[in-house]
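Table 4 source record.
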Amino acid sequence: MHISRVDLNLLVVFDTVYAEGSMTAASRKLNLSQPAVSHALARLREVFGEPLFERRGRGIAPTPLARAIAGPVRDALTAVERTLRQASHFDPAAAERHFRIGLREALEPSVLPELGRAICAAGPRLSLATARHDRPRLEPDLAAGEFDVALDVLLPLADRVPHELVLVDRLVVVARRDHPQLRRAKRRGWTIDAYLELDHVQVSSRRRGPALEDVALRPTGRSRRIRVRCQSHAAACRVVAGTDLVATIPEAYAKHVLEREVNQVLALPLEGIALETYMYWPANADGDPANRWLREQVRSALRTGR
């Protein structure tokens, strides 16, 4: 007989009657009437083709068939109970889970050290991987389970995918410590004019087009003198360390990876630029306990790593 034709609640009644050894005690524990318990056992007799309990004096006793199936039934019900608990509660100490986070290279130093420590400390069978995500494919990738969460700027898909603001950063200017023009600029005053007198490294993952700071300069009618364009903040910092160029990068990145014995950090003399990072997650995982737990770890890691 296929399991789909069996009411699994009947097995709960059988398990309770077997454990209690009494119809009366089982009915109290199940909060059912004794006739309801008797009816359930009668239906099970039809399923198995023979009785599971026999009258013995004023009580009942299990038949050989009942004794044979009692252990497997209890194991099966325990497995179902465990599955239901896991579906409504996430225990990182006992769970086995591999989390995947989509993010850009510049954010890794801000989130990964603290998040990695939290994941490893929470449970011995938890693991974590970060990977660069493709923005046009982020929505289907989240829906397909390619990523548990993703971190990025506010994207056009935000009206269709659950998201929240998790980090607001600012831009800073990085230059080598013995930069000759900066020594003079500091004496005169570190202004937007002094900033624009310098030669710049522009960081962008796109093939062409302005960076955020260049967009912010447009209303002033002024622009930077770009001498080198690269894809990563790490490369920009290395270029800056060996030249008289300067780079404009997120403060959180500069805080975690900058070689301060070689480079220095200055405030960006340009107001009104906020780097907002949002966390995205699959719509079908909005209430998932494991995903909720991971999102809280990401929030905590970003707060601690600032």
